[in-house]
Amino acid sequence: MHIEDTSPENNFLHKIGAMPSIKQLSLTGCGLNGTLHTQGFCGLTNLRLLDMSNNNLKGTLPECFYNFTSLENLDLSSNQLSGDVSALKSLTSLVELRLSNNYFKIPSSLEPFFNLSKLKHFHADNNTIYIESEMQPLAPRFQLNLISLSSCGDVGQFPHILFHQHDLRQVYLSNNNFREGFPNWLLNNNANLERLVLAKSSLQGHFELPFLPHTDLSYLDVSENSFYTNLPIDIGEKLPSLSFLNMSKNQFHGSIPSSIGDMNFLEALDLSNNQLSGGLPEHLTMGCFSLTSLALSNNKLQGQMFSSNVNLTKLRKLHLDGNHFSGKIPDSLSNCSFLSTLDLSNNVLSGEIPMWMENMSSLSTLDLSNNELSGDIPRWMGSMSNLEEIVMANNHLEGPFPKEFCHLNDLKLLDLSVNNISGRLPSCFSPLWISQVHLSRNKLEGALTNVFHNSTSLVTLDLSNNHLTGKIPRWIGNLSRLSFLLLNNNHFEGGIPIQLCKLGKLSLIDLSNNNLSGTIPPCLKITALNEISQEYVRYVTDIAQAPSSFSIDEPIEFRVKSMSYSYKGILLTYLSGIDLSCNKLTGPIPPAFSNLKQIESLDLSHNNLSGKIPPQLVGLYRLSYFSVAYNNLSGSTPAWTAQFATFDESSYVGNPLLCGDPLKDCSTSGPSASLLPKASTENGLIDMISFYVTFVVSYVMAILSIACVLYINPYWRQAWFYYVGSISNCCYYFLEDHILPKRLHCGNM
Q: Which residues cross the membrane (predicted)?
């Protein structure tokens, strides 16, 4: 009887409890609650299969399990059951036992199951395995084919039961804390072992292979451990039948053994995140002709990437990023025509992007960032219709943005930042599914016409540090998923479009260092992503990982306290800020900004804002940076409390009519601008201009007179040069602080 993913009616088990002839009962995912003692199945003593997995059962195992001597398959996984497992010691017919994802406490010797002579498969992942205080003198009567004890805590050593097993075919012991060396004895004792998974299990020391070649092992994963040794030079001879080998995230050093080329069946090899040096053995690139995935990222490999002889025609994923490979992208890679993922980033590659890449029709992810590549971005890339991710940041690429990119309809991520790309962005470039655009620090110019107007999946739009002109387009307000908008350090003019208020998921907006004018829209909404919805946060954080098999963590640069910081990954979900500094904005600071409860950074400095600072801003309890410096603000500063007690004078400097902590006391300050007669203010301004003009002219005439005298008398010339230098420095700083345009300050921030 099978009832899956359906809630049975009340007392269902009590009703079938009167049917002892039932031999199979499957109630997986049926929403069962309570304890096993109350479920009413204890009378079904003829059961051979009982599956109650994926429910909400709690408590301990009932003693009635002693009567289930015919039971061959028991699955209680993914519940909340707890206690010991001694109630199962009489299930002498049991062949497969699944207890994973509960709260059981199981001894490492598996002593409660010693008499289950027919037991072949044992699954107890995500429980607690403990070492008994006394060693068991007896050996178990069973010989397992499969044992899975992953994520069972601080075990401290390999379970004793493993020393008595000689017929194992699959062993899964990842995510434990064994603090031992590689168990080569498992391979010596189990000649039929096919799969061994020991990832993230606190293994350490040397990596020693079995005495004799093990011809049955096809899958070995020892990633994320602490092995500190050279890779065994004879690994290919001792493990010739491997199809999967993952030794990543350890501390292996030395060169890559040439004997790996003897693994003719190897399909996936991952040696990334170690300290391997030297080059890539030619015997590997010729002998491992079955490879579909090769990952050597983040090592110390160097020299030419490949020799001229490469026989990796089945390769689909190649990760060689984070090394010291130099020279050109090798032409021998042209034989890998089935590549879907190519990551050569963070090396020292030079030259142009080779034309043979055009023939890689299956390529969906290309990452060439952080190299020294030069030349134009190839126009033929626009014909690679499967491209979904293009990352070529931090190179020396130049020329125009290819209009042919308008044909990349499936593009999801584009990063060409920190290059020398010039010209206009083509108005036809508006991929429907693109989610991230990073084009900062280039030489792009012209107005944003219809580019990106159909890209409604955009989450990040970074066009900062270019030469873009015109107005900020209104269609940006239609990008409903937009979270990060960076248009700073361009030449945009006009007002801030009111349509930006439609961006309900906006987390960061940086429009600083432009020529924007008008008032600040009071309806701007800013919030941290983690405050929006968990579903949307998952969408944003997963967006760079799909559809490729590796994560492209694109950073976003945001300026705080005159310093640029890069944020990426999960940190982006907590970042929220507004930077409108260094523009020509006028009017008051919107009191509605006090509603932006999640905002962490607010920079309105170097504008022409006037009026009072809204006192309600003190309610922004997450604010870590605040600046309204160099405006025309007046009145009292916000109450020096909560977060605002952390902001010093630099947050308000350049507003002569402001007073209050941390500035001068309002009771001792002069009359505000509103109390001064208009004519008096204007006459004062004229007097100051006259003073400055007179001062500069007199200063220049004095310098010329002194220069003539010093030209005649060398002794006086030497003595006076020192004083002239000192006076010049004083005057320079005076002029810089009071006369030079405010724009110069913004340019040096």
A: 689-712
Task: Kindly report the number of other CB atoms within 10 A of residue 379's CB atom.
Answer: 14
Q: Give whichever of 24-33, 456-465, 695-704 has the largest mean pLDDT.
A: 456-465
Element (H, E) at 558: strand 556-560
Spatial CB neighbours of 48, under 8 Å, sequence gap ≥ 6: 23, 24, 70, 71, 72, 73, 93
Residue in 419, 440, 439 with CA at minimum distance from that of residue 429: 439
**Alpha carbons 392 and 402: distance in angstroms, whole number:** 14
Which domains can be identified in the chain, with CATH numbers? 474-659 (3.80.10.10)
Q: Which of 12-21, 324-333, 377-386, 734-743 is least confident?
A: 734-743
CA 351, 356, 359 angle in degrees (round to 5)? 145
Mean pLDDT of the region 472-498: 95
Nearest to 239 by CA among 288, 286, 285, 200: 288
Distance between CA atoms of 261 and 309, rounded to whole angstroms? 13
Q: What are phi and psi of 709, to 5 degrees?
A: -65, -45
pLDDT digits (tens, 9 = 90+) for 541-594: 454 444 333 334 566 666 555 555 555 544 455 678 999 999 999 999 999 999
DSSP-assigned letter for residue 364: -
**Which stretches of 176-278 are DSSP H helices?**
184-189, 235-238
**Whole-Å CA distances, 647 to 161, 382, 468, 643:** 63, 50, 34, 7
Dihedral sign, Cα of residue 87, residue 89, residue 90, residue 94: positive
The sign of the CA dihedral 77, 78, 80, 83 is: positive
* pLDDT over threshold 60, residue 715: no
H-assigned helices in 252-365 = 282-287
